[in-house]
Each structure stands twice: as structure tokens, then as C-alpha cells.
Recover the amino acids of this structure.
């Protein structure tokens, strides 16, 4: 993952509403969610949500797919995992820091 992509992703997540939307889509998993369902769950106007979804699509954090008349948004797990890999690449000075049963870094 290029540094410019990392910066773009982090910048997109540096907004409270976009972070909430992304986390909601991560929880929704592969089925994704419609903009209406996202707006309702987060109690945000559709126009505001639309702007933030576009920003997240630009950062490649979410994908959009048309299913008939509906738009479905999904978290881009490959991009999320690439971002996490980049951020933790030198964790613990390059040594493995996760035991198989651990849920956090053992640094």
C-alpha cells in the first residue's frame, strides 16, 4: 500500500461520522447496508451521509454496488487489512508480538 493511500485512508477515518459509518459497515459485514439504513441507524441526513460516503469511496474504504434500484455500501476489508498491516508492520521491532491466543500486542 502506497503512503498516499495510507494518508487518504487515515484522513477519511479522521472524521467522527465517517468513523461511525465505517465501523457500522464493518459490523454489517459482506451483506453491507443501504444508505437509508445507515442514515436511520446513525440519525444523519441523507445528503450529509452521501457526502461522507463519497469521501470514503475516494479513500477506497467502502465499495458501492447497485442491486436493482438500491445501492449497497460495504466496508472494503482488503483496504482495511492493508491499512492495519501497514500500521503494524514494525510492531515490536519486527518480532512476532501476537501469541495464537492473544487478543492484543504483547510488546
Amino acid at each position: 500500500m502506497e503512503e498516499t493511500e495510507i494518508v487518504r485512508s487515515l484522513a477519511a477515518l479522521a472524521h467522527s461520522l465517517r468513523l461511525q459509518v465505517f465501523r457500522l459497515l464493518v459490523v454489517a459485514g459482506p451483506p453491507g447496508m443501504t444508505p437509508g439504513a445507515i442514515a436511520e441507524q446513525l440519525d444523519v441526513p441523507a445528503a450529509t451521509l452521501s457526502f461522507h460516503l463519497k469521501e470514503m469511496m475516494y479513500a477506497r474504504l467502502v465499495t458501492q454496488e447497485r442491486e436493482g434500484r438500491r445501492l449497497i455500501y460495504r466496508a472494503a476489508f482488503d483496504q482495511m487489512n492493508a491499512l492495519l498491516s501497514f500500521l503494524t508492520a514494525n510492531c515490536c521491532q519486527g518480532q512476532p508480538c501476537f501469541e495464537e491466543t492473544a487478543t492484543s500486542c504483547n510488546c
User: Anything to note?
Assistant: The chain has one domain: 3-88. The beta strands are 62-67, 70-75. The chain is about 55% helix and 10% strand.
